[in-house]
Amino acid sequence: MKLAVIGTGYVGLVSGTCFAALGHEVTCIDRDASKIATLKQGGIPIYEDSLQQLVQENAAASRLHFTTDLAAGLEGAEAIFIAVGTPVSALGHGGADLSYVYAVARDIAPHLKDDAVIVVKSTVPVGTGKRLREIISELRPGLRFEMVSNPEFLREGCAVKDFMEPDRIITGTETARGKAVMEALYAPLTRQNVPLLITDIPTAELTKYAANAFLATKIAFINEMADVCEQTNADVAMLAHGMGLDHRIGQDFLAPGPGFGGSCFPKDTLALKKIAQEHKSPVRIVEAVIAANDARKIHMVTKVRDAFGGSVTGKKIAVLGLAFKANTSDVRESAALALLPALVEQGAHVQVYDPAAMEEAKHALSTLEVQWCQSLAEVLQGADGAVIVTEWPEFRQLDLAAAKTQMVQPVLVDLRNCITPDAAKAAGFTYHSIGRASSA
Ligand code: UGA
Prior knowledge:
The protein has a 6-stranded parallel β-sheet with strand order 3-2-1-4-5-6, sandwiched between helices. The protein has a 6-stranded parallel β-sheet with strand order 11-10-9-12-13-14. A two-stranded parallel ribbon has the order 7-8. Helix 10 crosses helix 12 and helix 13 (284-307) packs across helix 14 (335-345). The protein has 2 domains: 2-199, NAD(P)-binding Rossmann-like Domain (Rossmann fold, 3-Layer(aba) Sandwich); 205-440, Rossmann fold (3-Layer(aba) Sandwich), CATH 3.40.50. The N and C termini lie far apart (62 Å). 45% of the residues lie in helices and 13% in strands. The chain is of the alpha/beta class. The protein has 19 helices and 14 strands. Bound molecules: uridine-5'-diphosphate-glucuronic acid. Residues 123, 152-156, 212, 215, 219, 253-255, 257, 260-262, 264-265, 268, 324-325 line the site of uridine-5'-diphosphate-glucuronic acid. Uridine-5'-diphosphate-glucuronic acid binds next to helix 10 and helix 12.
Protein backbone atom coordinates (compact mmCIF):
# COMPACT_ATOMS: atom_id res chain seq x y z
CA MET A 1 0.00 0.00 0.00
CA LYS A 2 1.03 3.60 -0.49
CA LEU A 3 1.14 5.57 2.77
CA ALA A 4 1.89 9.09 3.94
CA VAL A 5 3.09 9.76 7.49
CA ILE A 6 2.97 13.33 8.75
CA GLY A 7 5.51 14.10 11.47
CA THR A 8 9.00 12.56 11.61
CA GLY A 9 9.33 12.67 15.38
CA TYR A 10 9.69 9.54 17.37
CA VAL A 11 6.36 7.92 16.54
CA GLY A 12 6.14 9.02 12.92
CA LEU A 13 9.66 8.03 11.96
CA VAL A 14 9.56 4.64 13.65
CA SER A 15 6.08 3.85 12.29
CA GLY A 16 6.83 5.06 8.76
CA THR A 17 10.10 3.15 8.60
CA CYS A 18 8.58 -0.03 9.99
CA PHE A 19 5.62 0.15 7.59
CA ALA A 20 8.18 0.39 4.77
CA ALA A 21 10.03 -2.59 6.21
CA LEU A 22 6.72 -4.50 6.11
CA GLY A 23 6.61 -3.86 2.36
CA HIS A 24 4.52 -0.68 2.02
CA GLU A 25 5.64 2.41 0.12
CA VAL A 26 5.88 5.24 2.63
CA THR A 27 6.45 8.97 2.34
CA CYS A 28 7.34 10.69 5.60
CA ILE A 29 6.44 14.38 5.60
CA ASP A 30 7.74 17.04 7.94
CA ARG A 31 7.80 20.81 7.69
CA ASP A 32 11.21 20.85 9.44
CA ALA A 33 13.59 21.07 6.46
CA SER A 34 16.69 20.24 8.50
CA LYS A 35 15.14 16.99 9.76
CA ILE A 36 14.16 15.97 6.26
CA ALA A 37 17.64 16.84 4.97
CA THR A 38 19.22 14.66 7.70
CA LEU A 39 16.90 11.78 6.84
CA LYS A 40 17.56 12.07 3.12
CA GLN A 41 21.28 11.79 3.85
CA GLY A 42 20.70 8.56 5.79
CA GLY A 43 20.96 10.12 9.25
CA ILE A 44 18.26 10.06 11.91
CA PRO A 45 17.33 12.97 14.18
CA ILE A 46 16.64 10.72 17.22
CA TYR A 47 18.58 8.12 19.19
CA GLU A 48 16.97 4.72 18.61
CA ASP A 49 18.59 1.34 18.41
CA SER A 50 18.56 -0.24 14.92
CA LEU A 51 16.42 2.52 13.39
CA GLN A 52 19.11 4.16 11.28
CA GLN A 53 19.99 0.97 9.45
CA LEU A 54 16.31 0.28 8.77
CA VAL A 55 15.84 3.81 7.41
CA GLN A 56 18.83 3.42 5.11
CA GLU A 57 17.80 -0.04 3.88
CA ASN A 58 14.24 0.99 3.08
CA ALA A 59 15.24 4.29 1.51
CA ALA A 60 17.71 2.41 -0.70
CA ALA A 61 14.91 0.00 -1.69
CA SER A 62 12.77 3.04 -2.67
CA ARG A 63 10.10 2.09 -0.17
CA LEU A 64 10.80 5.04 2.13
CA HIS A 65 10.83 8.67 1.02
CA PHE A 66 11.15 11.98 2.85
CA THR A 67 9.75 15.34 1.86
CA THR A 68 8.71 18.74 3.17
CA ASP A 69 6.17 19.04 0.33
CA LEU A 70 2.79 18.11 1.81
CA ALA A 71 0.86 18.01 -1.46
CA ALA A 72 3.48 15.82 -3.16
CA GLY A 73 3.75 13.54 -0.13
CA LEU A 74 -0.01 12.96 0.01
CA GLU A 75 -0.30 12.14 -3.69
CA GLY A 76 -1.78 8.66 -4.13
CA ALA A 77 -1.65 7.80 -0.42
CA GLU A 78 -4.16 5.09 0.52
CA ALA A 79 -3.81 5.99 4.19
CA ILE A 80 -2.56 9.24 5.73
CA PHE A 81 -1.09 8.98 9.22
CA ILE A 82 -1.05 11.91 11.63
CA ALA A 83 1.93 11.39 13.93
CA VAL A 84 2.70 14.83 15.36
CA GLY A 85 3.31 15.66 19.02
CA THR A 86 0.63 16.19 21.67
CA PRO A 87 2.70 17.71 24.51
CA VAL A 88 1.28 18.87 27.82
CA SER A 89 -0.57 22.11 27.16
CA ALA A 90 1.21 25.31 28.17
CA LEU A 91 -2.11 26.50 29.59
CA GLY A 92 -1.37 24.62 32.81
CA HIS A 93 -4.54 22.48 32.96
CA GLY A 94 -2.63 19.23 32.44
CA GLY A 95 -4.44 18.39 29.20
CA ALA A 96 -2.80 17.63 25.86
CA ASP A 97 -1.96 20.43 23.43
CA LEU A 98 -3.79 19.42 20.25
CA SER A 99 -2.80 22.42 18.18
CA TYR A 100 -0.31 20.43 16.05
CA VAL A 101 -2.87 17.71 15.31
CA TYR A 102 -5.57 20.23 14.39
CA ALA A 103 -3.10 22.17 12.23
CA VAL A 104 -2.33 18.99 10.26
CA ALA A 105 -6.05 18.41 9.67
CA ARG A 106 -6.40 21.95 8.31
CA ASP A 107 -3.23 21.61 6.20
CA ILE A 108 -4.18 18.32 4.57
CA ALA A 109 -7.86 19.16 3.98
CA PRO A 110 -7.34 20.99 0.66
CA HIS A 111 -5.31 18.06 -0.73
CA LEU A 112 -7.66 15.21 0.21
CA LYS A 113 -9.42 13.16 -2.44
CA ASP A 114 -12.64 11.18 -2.03
CA ASP A 115 -12.21 7.97 0.02
CA ALA A 116 -9.17 9.31 1.85
CA VAL A 117 -8.33 7.37 5.03
CA ILE A 118 -6.89 9.49 7.85
CA VAL A 119 -5.30 7.56 10.68
CA VAL A 120 -4.44 9.23 14.00
CA LYS A 121 -1.29 7.72 15.55
CA SER A 122 -0.62 10.62 17.91
CA THR A 123 -1.85 10.06 21.48
CA VAL A 124 -5.03 12.14 21.63
CA PRO A 125 -7.86 12.58 24.13
CA VAL A 126 -11.08 10.73 23.51
CA GLY A 127 -13.26 12.75 21.13
CA THR A 128 -10.35 14.06 19.02
CA GLY A 129 -11.18 11.82 16.04
CA LYS A 130 -14.70 13.26 16.06
CA ARG A 131 -13.36 16.81 16.21
CA LEU A 132 -10.93 16.15 13.34
CA ARG A 133 -13.78 14.81 11.24
CA GLU A 134 -15.68 18.07 11.90
CA ILE A 135 -12.68 20.26 11.01
CA ILE A 136 -12.12 18.48 7.69
CA SER A 137 -15.84 18.36 6.87
CA GLU A 138 -16.13 22.10 7.47
CA LEU A 139 -13.23 22.78 5.12
CA ARG A 140 -14.26 20.21 2.51
CA PRO A 141 -18.06 19.84 2.57
CA GLY A 142 -19.18 16.76 0.65
CA LEU A 143 -15.77 15.01 0.76
CA ARG A 144 -16.00 11.25 1.48
CA PHE A 145 -13.28 10.24 3.95
CA GLU A 146 -12.60 7.86 6.85
CA MET A 147 -11.24 8.72 10.30
CA VAL A 148 -9.34 5.93 12.06
CA SER A 149 -7.60 5.79 15.44
CA ASN A 150 -4.49 3.62 15.67
CA PRO A 151 -2.58 4.38 18.88
CA GLU A 152 1.05 3.36 19.21
CA PHE A 153 2.61 1.29 21.97
CA LEU A 154 6.29 1.91 21.24
CA ARG A 155 8.86 2.20 24.00
CA GLU A 156 11.81 4.45 23.35
CA GLY A 157 14.92 2.30 23.08
CA CYS A 158 13.09 -0.72 21.65
CA ALA A 159 10.56 0.94 19.40
CA VAL A 160 11.44 -1.02 16.25
CA LYS A 161 10.99 -4.33 18.05
CA ASP A 162 7.77 -3.10 19.66
CA PHE A 163 6.43 -2.17 16.21
CA MET A 164 7.49 -5.36 14.48
CA GLU A 165 6.54 -7.74 17.30
CA PRO A 166 3.63 -6.06 19.07
CA ASP A 167 1.48 -7.73 21.72
CA ARG A 168 -1.51 -6.33 19.84
CA ILE A 169 -2.61 -3.67 17.37
CA ILE A 170 -5.51 -1.45 18.39
CA THR A 171 -7.57 0.16 15.66
CA GLY A 172 -10.64 2.33 16.11
CA THR A 173 -12.78 2.50 12.99
CA GLU A 174 -16.49 2.56 12.49
CA THR A 175 -16.82 1.57 8.83
CA ALA A 176 -16.20 -1.58 6.78
CA ARG A 177 -13.84 0.36 4.53
CA GLY A 178 -11.76 1.68 7.44
CA LYS A 179 -11.54 -1.86 8.80
CA ALA A 180 -10.51 -3.29 5.41
CA VAL A 181 -7.74 -0.71 4.95
CA MET A 182 -6.31 -1.32 8.42
CA GLU A 183 -6.48 -5.10 7.97
CA ALA A 184 -4.57 -4.82 4.68
CA LEU A 185 -2.03 -2.46 6.24
CA TYR A 186 -1.22 -4.77 9.13
CA ALA A 187 -1.61 -8.05 7.19
CA PRO A 188 2.17 -8.78 7.36
CA LEU A 189 1.86 -8.79 11.16
CA THR A 190 -1.55 -10.44 11.58
CA ARG A 191 -0.28 -13.27 9.34
CA GLN A 192 2.21 -13.90 12.14
CA ASN A 193 -0.69 -14.15 14.60
CA VAL A 194 -0.41 -10.64 16.06
CA PRO A 195 -3.92 -9.80 17.31
CA LEU A 196 -5.59 -6.85 15.57
CA LEU A 197 -8.37 -5.52 17.75
CA ILE A 198 -10.98 -3.43 15.98
CA THR A 199 -12.94 -1.07 18.22
CA ASP A 200 -14.90 2.12 17.83
CA ILE A 201 -12.83 5.32 17.75
CA PRO A 202 -13.40 6.55 21.35
CA THR A 203 -12.44 3.14 22.74
CA ALA A 204 -9.20 3.06 20.75
CA GLU A 205 -8.33 6.59 21.83
CA LEU A 206 -8.97 5.80 25.47
CA THR A 207 -7.24 2.39 25.41
CA LYS A 208 -3.92 4.15 24.82
CA TYR A 209 -4.31 6.31 27.93
CA ALA A 210 -5.61 3.40 29.98
CA ALA A 211 -2.62 1.23 29.04
CA ASN A 212 -0.06 3.91 29.88
CA ALA A 213 -1.84 4.86 33.11
CA PHE A 214 -2.01 1.22 34.20
CA LEU A 215 1.72 0.68 33.57
CA ALA A 216 2.47 3.91 35.46
CA THR A 217 0.31 2.59 38.30
CA LYS A 218 2.35 -0.61 38.49
CA ILE A 219 5.54 1.44 38.78
CA ALA A 220 4.13 3.82 41.39
CA PHE A 221 2.86 0.81 43.35
CA ILE A 222 6.18 -1.03 43.41
CA ASN A 223 7.98 2.20 44.32
CA GLU A 224 5.77 2.59 47.39
CA MET A 225 6.27 -1.09 48.24
CA ALA A 226 10.02 -0.45 47.98
CA ASP A 227 9.70 2.23 50.66
CA VAL A 228 7.77 -0.17 52.88
CA CYS A 229 10.45 -2.83 52.29
CA GLU A 230 13.15 -0.39 53.41
CA GLN A 231 11.30 0.21 56.67
CA THR A 232 10.66 -3.49 57.32
CA ASN A 233 13.97 -5.05 56.20
CA ALA A 234 12.22 -6.80 53.34
CA ASP A 235 13.70 -7.10 49.82
CA VAL A 236 11.67 -5.46 47.04
CA ALA A 237 13.34 -7.45 44.24
CA MET A 238 12.21 -10.72 45.76
CA LEU A 239 8.84 -9.25 46.62
CA ALA A 240 8.31 -8.11 43.00
CA HIS A 241 9.38 -11.52 41.73
CA GLY A 242 7.03 -13.24 44.15
CA MET A 243 4.14 -10.98 43.11
CA GLY A 244 4.92 -11.22 39.41
CA LEU A 245 4.92 -15.02 39.32
CA ASP A 246 1.17 -14.71 39.66
CA HIS A 247 0.14 -14.59 35.98
CA ARG A 248 -2.64 -12.19 36.83
CA ILE A 249 0.02 -9.67 37.92
CA GLY A 250 3.03 -10.43 35.68
CA GLN A 251 6.71 -9.59 36.16
CA ASP A 252 6.90 -6.55 33.87
CA PHE A 253 6.95 -2.96 35.06
CA LEU A 254 7.66 -3.91 38.65
CA ALA A 255 11.22 -2.58 38.72
CA PRO A 256 11.41 0.06 41.45
CA GLY A 257 13.36 3.21 40.78
CA PRO A 258 13.45 6.98 41.14
CA GLY A 259 9.96 7.44 39.66
CA PHE A 260 8.74 7.19 36.10
CA GLY A 261 9.71 9.83 33.56
CA GLY A 262 9.86 10.30 29.82
CA SER A 263 7.59 11.97 27.34
CA CYS A 264 4.64 9.62 27.84
CA PHE A 265 3.68 8.44 31.33
CA PRO A 266 3.85 11.86 33.04
CA LYS A 267 2.03 13.55 30.14
CA ASP A 268 -0.56 10.83 29.58
CA THR A 269 -1.50 10.35 33.23
CA LEU A 270 -2.09 14.11 33.50
CA ALA A 271 -4.11 14.11 30.29
CA LEU A 272 -6.23 11.16 31.45
CA LYS A 273 -6.93 12.97 34.72
CA LYS A 274 -8.09 15.99 32.71
CA ILE A 275 -10.23 13.92 30.32
CA ALA A 276 -11.88 12.16 33.28
CA GLN A 277 -12.53 15.42 35.11
CA GLU A 278 -14.10 16.93 32.01
CA HIS A 279 -16.42 13.96 31.79
CA LYS A 280 -17.17 14.15 35.52
CA SER A 281 -15.81 10.65 36.03
CA PRO A 282 -12.69 11.10 38.18
CA VAL A 283 -9.82 8.61 38.00
CA ARG A 284 -8.75 8.72 41.65
CA ILE A 285 -6.19 5.95 41.30
CA VAL A 286 -4.44 7.77 38.45
CA GLU A 287 -4.54 11.02 40.44
CA ALA A 288 -2.82 9.19 43.31
CA VAL A 289 -0.22 7.78 40.91
CA ILE A 290 0.62 11.29 39.67
CA ALA A 291 0.93 12.58 43.24
CA ALA A 292 3.02 9.58 44.33
CA ASN A 293 5.41 10.01 41.41
CA ASP A 294 5.81 13.74 42.10
CA ALA A 295 6.50 13.00 45.78
CA ARG A 296 9.03 10.35 44.81
CA LYS A 297 11.25 12.90 43.10
CA ILE A 298 11.51 14.85 46.35
CA HIS A 299 11.99 11.62 48.30
CA MET A 300 14.98 10.73 46.10
CA VAL A 301 16.70 13.98 47.08
CA THR A 302 16.19 13.10 50.75
CA LYS A 303 17.49 9.60 50.13
CA VAL A 304 20.71 10.90 48.58
CA ARG A 305 21.12 13.47 51.37
CA ASP A 306 20.64 10.79 54.03
CA ALA A 307 23.29 8.64 52.36
CA PHE A 308 25.72 11.53 52.85
CA GLY A 309 24.97 11.75 56.56
CA GLY A 310 22.15 14.32 56.28
CA SER A 311 23.92 17.00 54.24
CA VAL A 312 25.42 17.21 50.77
CA THR A 313 26.91 20.66 51.33
CA GLY A 314 30.47 20.73 50.02
CA LYS A 315 30.29 17.10 48.84
CA LYS A 316 31.55 16.17 45.41
CA ILE A 317 28.83 13.92 44.00
CA ALA A 318 29.10 11.88 40.79
CA VAL A 319 25.74 11.43 39.06
CA LEU A 320 25.68 8.44 36.70
CA GLY A 321 22.89 8.79 34.16
CA LEU A 322 20.74 11.66 32.91
CA ALA A 323 18.34 9.95 30.48
CA PHE A 324 14.87 9.02 31.79
CA LYS A 325 15.78 5.37 31.24
CA ALA A 326 18.56 3.41 29.54
CA ASN A 327 18.98 3.18 25.74
CA THR A 328 17.67 6.65 24.99
CA SER A 329 19.10 10.15 24.83
CA ASP A 330 15.76 11.56 26.04
CA VAL A 331 15.91 13.48 29.33
CA ARG A 332 12.29 14.66 29.38
CA GLU A 333 10.90 14.33 32.94
CA SER A 334 13.96 12.29 33.90
CA ALA A 335 14.73 11.71 37.56
CA ALA A 336 18.10 13.43 37.07
CA LEU A 337 16.41 16.64 36.00
CA ALA A 338 14.68 16.82 39.38
CA LEU A 339 17.63 15.59 41.44
CA LEU A 340 20.46 17.72 40.05
CA PRO A 341 19.07 21.20 40.77
CA ALA A 342 18.16 20.13 44.32
CA LEU A 343 21.68 18.81 45.01
CA VAL A 344 23.30 21.94 43.58
CA GLU A 345 20.94 24.15 45.57
CA GLN A 346 21.92 22.30 48.74
CA GLY A 347 25.58 23.07 48.11
CA ALA A 348 26.84 19.88 46.45
CA HIS A 349 29.49 19.98 43.71
CA VAL A 350 27.93 17.76 41.09
CA GLN A 351 29.71 16.03 38.23
CA VAL A 352 27.60 14.17 35.69
CA TYR A 353 27.95 11.61 32.94
CA ASP A 354 25.55 9.80 30.61
CA PRO A 355 26.56 7.59 27.66
CA ALA A 356 24.00 9.20 25.30
CA ALA A 357 22.07 12.08 26.89
CA MET A 358 24.78 14.70 27.56
CA GLU A 359 23.72 17.11 24.83
CA GLU A 360 20.02 16.95 25.65
CA ALA A 361 20.76 17.36 29.36
CA LYS A 362 23.04 20.34 28.72
CA HIS A 363 20.18 21.94 26.84
CA ALA A 364 17.61 21.17 29.56
CA LEU A 365 19.92 22.25 32.41
CA SER A 366 21.66 25.08 30.61
CA THR A 367 21.81 27.39 33.64
CA LEU A 368 22.84 24.76 36.20
CA GLU A 369 26.44 24.72 37.41
CA VAL A 370 27.59 21.12 37.13
CA GLN A 371 30.70 19.52 35.72
CA TRP A 372 29.97 17.67 32.47
CA CYS A 373 32.23 14.61 32.23
CA GLN A 374 33.15 12.59 29.16
CA SER A 375 33.44 9.15 30.72
CA LEU A 376 32.60 6.98 33.69
CA ALA A 377 36.21 7.19 34.90
CA GLU A 378 36.13 10.99 34.74
CA VAL A 379 32.84 11.35 36.60
CA LEU A 380 33.97 9.12 39.46
CA GLN A 381 37.35 10.82 39.83
CA GLY A 382 37.69 12.46 43.25
CA ALA A 383 34.01 11.99 44.15
CA ASP A 384 32.77 11.73 47.74
CA GLY A 385 30.03 9.44 46.49
CA ALA A 386 28.19 8.32 43.38
CA VAL A 387 24.49 8.16 42.53
CA ILE A 388 23.23 5.85 39.77
CA VAL A 389 20.13 7.45 38.25
CA THR A 390 19.82 5.62 34.90
CA GLU A 391 20.23 1.86 34.47
CA TRP A 392 22.69 1.93 31.54
CA PRO A 393 24.52 -1.41 30.99
CA GLU A 394 27.81 0.49 31.55
CA PHE A 395 26.69 1.28 35.10
CA ARG A 396 25.33 -2.22 35.77
CA GLN A 397 28.80 -3.52 34.87
CA LEU A 398 30.57 -0.94 37.01
CA ASP A 399 34.04 -2.16 38.05
CA LEU A 400 33.58 -1.56 41.76
CA ALA A 401 37.21 -2.13 42.68
CA ALA A 402 38.40 0.42 40.09
CA ALA A 403 35.64 2.86 41.09
CA LYS A 404 36.74 2.69 44.72
CA THR A 405 40.27 3.70 43.83
CA GLN A 406 38.99 6.66 41.80
CA MET A 407 36.64 7.96 44.49
CA VAL A 408 37.56 9.73 47.72
CA GLN A 409 34.72 8.11 49.69
CA PRO A 410 33.20 4.73 48.73
CA VAL A 411 29.55 5.80 48.98
CA LEU A 412 27.16 4.46 46.35
CA VAL A 413 23.48 5.36 46.05
CA ASP A 414 21.87 3.09 43.48
CA LEU A 415 18.43 4.41 42.50
CA ARG A 416 18.00 1.59 39.92
CA ASN A 417 19.27 -1.43 41.84
CA CYS A 418 21.96 -2.00 39.20
CA ILE A 419 24.50 -3.46 41.62
CA THR A 420 24.08 -6.48 43.89
CA PRO A 421 24.36 -5.49 47.58
CA ASP A 422 26.83 -8.31 48.27
CA ALA A 423 29.17 -7.13 45.49
CA ALA A 424 29.02 -3.55 46.76
CA LYS A 425 29.72 -4.67 50.31
CA ALA A 426 32.57 -6.97 49.23
CA ALA A 427 34.15 -4.04 47.35
CA GLY A 428 34.02 -1.95 50.51
CA PHE A 429 31.22 0.43 49.53
CA THR A 430 28.62 1.96 51.79
CA TYR A 431 25.74 1.02 49.56
CA HIS A 432 22.19 2.36 49.45
CA SER A 433 19.63 1.02 47.01
CA ILE A 434 15.88 1.00 46.51
CA GLY A 435 13.73 -1.25 48.67
CA ARG A 436 16.60 -3.19 50.18
CA ALA A 437 18.55 -2.85 53.41
CA SER A 438 21.55 -0.50 53.17
CA SER A 439 25.03 -1.85 53.89
CA ALA A 440 27.87 -0.05 55.61
C1 UGA B 1 5.85 4.16 27.31
C2 UGA B 1 5.08 2.84 27.14
O1 UGA B 1 5.81 1.78 27.74
C3 UGA B 1 4.85 2.53 25.66
O2 UGA B 1 4.06 1.35 25.53
C4 UGA B 1 4.11 3.71 25.04
O3 UGA B 1 3.84 3.51 23.67
C5 UGA B 1 4.95 4.97 25.21
O4 UGA B 1 5.14 5.21 26.62
C6 UGA B 1 4.19 6.10 24.58
O5 UGA B 1 3.10 6.45 25.07
O6 UGA B 1 4.60 6.58 23.52
P1 UGA B 1 8.43 4.92 27.21
O7 UGA B 1 7.96 6.22 27.78
O8 UGA B 1 9.36 4.92 26.05
O9 UGA B 1 7.16 4.02 26.76
O10 UGA B 1 9.20 4.17 28.37
P2 UGA B 1 8.97 2.96 29.39
O11 UGA B 1 9.92 1.89 29.08
O12 UGA B 1 7.54 2.58 29.47
O13 UGA B 1 9.41 3.67 30.76
C7 UGA B 1 8.74 4.80 31.29
C8 UGA B 1 9.32 5.19 32.63
O14 UGA B 1 9.00 4.22 33.62
C9 UGA B 1 10.84 5.31 32.65
O15 UGA B 1 11.22 6.41 33.45
C10 UGA B 1 11.31 4.01 33.28
O16 UGA B 1 12.56 4.10 33.90
C11 UGA B 1 10.18 3.77 34.28
N1 UGA B 1 10.03 2.36 34.66
C12 UGA B 1 9.63 1.45 33.74
C13 UGA B 1 10.27 1.98 35.96
O17 UGA B 1 10.64 2.81 36.83
N2 UGA B 1 10.09 0.67 36.31
C14 UGA B 1 9.68 -0.26 35.41
O18 UGA B 1 9.53 -1.45 35.81
C15 UGA B 1 9.46 0.13 34.10
